[in-house]
Amino acid sequence: MRADALRNRERLVEVAQSAFATHGIETSLEEIARQAGVGIGTLYRRFPRREDLIAAVLAERYLKLAECAQTLAECREDADAAFTEWLTLLIEHMAIYRGLSLAVKEAIHDQSTALGQTCKEMMDAGTRLLERGQRAEAFRSDVNFWDVMSLCSGIVTAVERRAEKPVDSGVPPVNPYLLLDVVLRGLRKQDA
Amino acid sequence: MRADALRNRERLVEVAQSAFATHGIETSLEEIARQAGVGIGTLYRRFPRREDLIAAVLAERYLKLAECAQTLAECREDADAAFTEWLTLLIEHMAIYRGLSLAVKEAIHDQSTALGQTCKEMMDAGTRLLERGQRAEAFRSDVNFWDVMSLCSGIVTAVERRAEKPVDSGVPPVNPYLLLDVVLRGLRKQDA
DNA sequence: CATTTAAGCGGAGGCTAACTCCGTTTAGCG
DNA sequence: CGCTAAACGGAGTTAGCCTCCGCTTAAATG
Question: Which chain B residues in 50-109 sit with Cβ < 7 A of strand C?
């Protein structure tokens, strides 16, 4: 890879990160290119789909999440507590950019995409954590990790949507931790 | 309202209903106008926002859902079973048009919109059904109906997203009834 | 250092769809 | 029948996606 190309790539990811943070993941790509001081063609050559850019921005963040799952699996005796703690981290990570939770929900069903790949390691680690809990008879075993991801994505989407609305609309704020607690309870074996 | 205006309105709703069914809720409004044989200006005058059109298409459907909740509340002894049955109907209704689940998630947080109004009666009926269950000590009482709606919308969105992906991508299909069961279990009082 | 060339660049241009605006048409009342 | 407010329609504006291709340049080679 040529030096100038690398420079541009880094610049784009940097600008995209801050644009996503401000305007959400659906922000204009032309604007990102402009702010990065490159032509729109350059952006598209490096990141043919929006997703590719998202994946680049998230890469290290999601790698850490995977590592964290690994650590929890090794250090925490209590499989239930480990998974609970990790899911909490997961929904927090899904909430960093407006719209991300939906993009992730899309990606988990299709690992052929760049974002899907980025999520893969994280998903694998999470799956192991869930399965450990299932072996320990803490969680019901008819649910797989994709199911859990789907529900978590739903929680984060709800928070995002509520946040866009006026505070005084009569609808109470959405508490993601409460919703996560509902999901986790539903996941646990009752007869234990 | 003038007779021609009424005719056009009905025609638009009719066409929109079938366009939504085929292409999802995000289908082109210009296409709907064209198929209805009216100008795009006419469509926008009657339905200034896409949501208004969606609301018109859903109106009677959601009214029935509200009635159904009422009936269940009156006829079913078992508050838990009543709510369970109704939520099943709810997620089925949310799934009729691709993208609807997200629009509804948006609308429940803002009843100032047309779709929010359309959902209101249905929501009120659902709320009563949930609260009945809570009074009967069947469901935990720190969760409100918006929370439940949010989770249900998340379930339906997951199904939609999965359906758009190739069957052989290695990801198992999403079973909405299983996910709903998880949510319902999470909603129930455990110590009962 | 000069030459070469493939990698990279950029932005004009085509496309689609949303949404507005305003001159024209017409329903239906008196 | 004539009037007028209501309704119509579609051209035009805007915005963003994405492609395509002629120009530029890094860096490899002799």
Answer: 50
